[in-house]
Amino acid sequence: MTEEKEQDKPPQDKPQEETKAPAKAEKQQEKEKPEPPPAQAPKAKQRKKVTRMTLEEIEKDLKSVQEKMGGFRSDFARHLLARKKELTAPGPKS
Length: 94
Known about the structure:
The chain is mostly helical. Helices cover 60% and strands 0% of the residues. The radius of gyration is 33 Å and the shape is rod-shaped.
């Protein structure tokens, strides 16, 4: 009698296997997709070092900082102001 009950029940392993198979196929398809080479990826604009900027570049950046940030409280703005002071100060340059 127990054998009949076991035969009447559908096996539970088959539905689980069927759900795993499509998931594996999707993962394989994702792996097969070619990734764009790094040369084609857009490059982010990098800032020039403040210590290597000219007076014109510093003044241009100070204007953009004033417009975007509304003041000179940021570290970047303070560094720009310090570099401007170095460039405009009279005396020997080191």
